[in-house]
Amino acid sequence: MRIVIAEDDPLLREGLALLLRAEGLDVVATTDSPEPFLEAVDKHEPDVAIVDVRMPPTHTDEGIVAAVEARRRQPELAVLVLSAYVEQAFATDLLAGGAAKLGYLLKERVGRVEEFLVALHRVADGGTAIDPEVVGLLLARQRPESSLARLSPRERDVLALMAEGLGNTAIAEKLVVTEGAVHKHIRSIFAKLDLPPDDRADRRVTAVLRYLEAAR
């Protein structure tokens, strides 16, 4: 796995690089701002980009903008965004083009090495990894008028875990239910969110995006 890191904190940047190299992963470039990051993506064509949300010059949304641009240039690029705070608007902006190969984690998750590496590999393999704290905040801020209000508490639990990027087997283990029960809940979620089968769209991704958008 070839990785580019864009992080303006030198300690975190080099610490990440050391951690990933110790795991046998190929960190091909580390950068501290958006322009060198995009140059590194063009030059090295990495499999995964790890990007800080806030980078120079304004330390607002440069990382998100750079991540979206990197995906435009390299559509197969997996992107794992790191943030010091829960910033749900940035999560929905990043996921607007689809949830495959995308992750959004709080930086504190990096310190939990095993969790971080699981999320990194999930994103690299084509999945989605949304920090549980981000998902929790989105659920707490859900608008009453949202179509999500139709969901039962268990269905909201299932959808929250889908938003974290978990597959059906992992959801079943987390909720201590059978996979059959998870399938049933997901079918009910699709029905209540008015998501009929459609070859043009992934209903699972659409449901997650509805969930994230409802908290804006």
TrEMBL record:
Gene Ontology MF terms in the entry? DNA binding
Q: In this protein, which residues make up the domain named HTH luxR-type?
A: 144-211
Q: Which Pfam family, any one of them, does this sequence belong to?
A: GerE
Instruction: Give residue numbers for the modification (4-aspartylphosphate).
Output: D52
Give all residue intervals belonging to the Response regulatory domain.
Answer: 2-122
UniProt key word Nucleus: no
Q: Keywords in alphabetical order, please.
A: DNA-binding, Phosphoprotein, Transcription, Transcription regulation
GO BP annotation list: phosphorelay signal transduction system; regulation of DNA-templated transcription
**Listed CDD domains:** LuxR_C_like (cd06170), REC_NarL-like (cd17535)
Keyword Transcription assigned: yes
Q: What is this protein called?
A: DNA-binding response regulator, NarL/FixJ family, contains REC and HTH domains
What organism is the protein native to? Paractinoplanes atraurantiacus
**Upper lineage ranks?**
Bacteria, Bacillati, Actinomycetota, Actinomycetes, Micromonosporales
